[in-house]
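Chapter summary example.
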Amino acid sequence: MPRLTTEQRQKEIIDEALNIIHECGYGSLSIRELAIRVKISEPAIYRHFLNKEDIILGILSRISAFDQILADSLHNKKMPLDKLDEFIMFHFRFLEKNRTLTSVIFAEDIFTQSKILKEKLMKIISYRQRLLVEIIEEIKNQDSVKGLSSQELSKIILGFIRITVLEWKLSDFSFSLIDKGESIKNTFEKLIFNK
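The structure predicted for these 195 residues follows.
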């Protein structure tokens, strides 16, 4: 079997860390368990990552990479409501394909134990909120949505995305996240933007 490159091995370790967190919870993630599952020695894990926190940073970097893809996808949309639709649906499509990431996103204990991880997650959240506020401002400029704060609307929309994904995760992924996303997207347009 050919030897894996550093990038391939790091991806394999991160993938397996996600599987462990998804199957058993963050408390079950250990370098020993990772080494067993990846079929390499514990020192070999440490050649790629300093510690568990560094592995979680690798997972968050994967989530951050999503931000550039999201921004590119939004750039291709010309109408503000189309951008809002894409923002919402992009999250649901991404998570439908990457279910294990939901176990990290909702494992708040991971982020309360580490200032570095907390700051990285806050940076991701802030970036997405800024993108969403820009979209809402564009919609407001075209449609005169009265008396509604773009910041508060962005929190409402992100909150709905979060609660929908949590409901999906807790139901053992028993419904289509994409179908539910379409329904939520339509509700937002009716309630907030009178569409």
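To summarize the output: Residues 6 and 74 are 32 Å apart (CA to CA).
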